């Protein structure tokens, strides 16, 4: 083989490796390149009924939440995985760089960090934008030295009409009665299942039991193995529905009669 052909072959192999290698955050937590997430999105532009909400799992811990009034909110908005287009509201958490952005799109109307960037205490958000109300419930996170960053992150609650959606973010610990009171009724919960970077899987099961949401959508899993381990632990507790699309439309009337885990394809 000539040197030219050899160099060409090595270049092709290097390119293929980069295309299939998962992106990682600065902290080592696996992430996703935006183009990987976008290529799987069956984004629908259909209008929503007055009591409906559209959820699209963008990837990792990012969901796009759309209201009947056309308001769009992105959860754990970051520089690795972003929804197509610009959301009106972006929530962020700081445990890893796959959960916040250093350079949010300046067209975003409200950027809500889940921690107080001045270090003065807990973040406090309670805003209404169009037909969407967003508020936060602070939680603690572990530090890299093994300590506790009190009120370092937030769970965000999205209220659309009669529906209450809770995104648990990078939850590191069980929920206490005060957290549950602050969250209030939760109809749909978006929760991490990796079991190592966030709360362990047994602890997450206890969180879900305490919330009693009718729809439970897992996120923050690094491959099917992690997700399946969680589902094997929960199989005697709740039914599981696996969807082929990353998008789902829900309303108060369409919620399942019993708490159900709904799995959307993602990362």
TrEMBL record:
<protein>
    <submittedName>
        <fullName>MBL fold metallo-hydrolase</fullName>
    </submittedName>
</protein>
<dbReference type="Pfam" id="PF13483">
    <property type="entry name" value="Lactamase_B_3"/>
</dbReference>
<dbReference type="InterPro" id="IPR036866">
    <property type="entry name" value="RibonucZ/Hydroxyglut_hydro"/>
</dbReference>
């Amino acid at each position: 083989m000539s040197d030219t052909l050899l160099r060409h072959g090595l270049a092709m192999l290097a390119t293929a490796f980069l295309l299939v290698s998962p992106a990682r955050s600065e902290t080592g937590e696996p992430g996703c390149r935006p183009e990987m997430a976008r290529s799987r999105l069956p984004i629908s532009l259909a209008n929503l009924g007055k009591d409906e909400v559209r959820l699209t799992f963008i990837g990792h811990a990012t969901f796009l939440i759309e209201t009947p009034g056309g308001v769009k909110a992105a959860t754990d908005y970051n520089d690795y995985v972003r929804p197509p287009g610009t959301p009106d509201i972006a929530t962020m958490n700081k445990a890893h760089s796959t959960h916040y952005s250093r350079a949010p799109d300046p067209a975003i109307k409200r950027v809500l960090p889940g921690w107080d960037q001045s270090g003065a205490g807990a973040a406090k958000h309670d805003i209404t934008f169009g037909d969407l109300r967003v508020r936060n419930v602070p939680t603690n996170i572990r530090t890299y030295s093994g300590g506790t960053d009190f009120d370092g992150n937030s769970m965000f609650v999205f209220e659309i009409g009669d529906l209450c959606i809770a995104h648990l973010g990078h939850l590191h610990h069980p929920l206490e009665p005060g957290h549950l009171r602050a969250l209030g009724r939760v109809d749909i919960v978006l929760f991490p299942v990796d079991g190592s970077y966030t709360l362990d899987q047994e602890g997450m099961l206890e969180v879900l039991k305490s919330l009693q949401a009718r729809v439970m959508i897992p996120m923050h899993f690094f491959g099917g193995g992690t997700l399946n381990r969680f589902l094997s632990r929960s199989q005697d507790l709740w039914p599981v529905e696996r969807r082929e699309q990353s998008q789902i439309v829900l309303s108060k009337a369409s919620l399942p009669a019993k708490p159900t885990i709904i799995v959307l394809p993602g990362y």
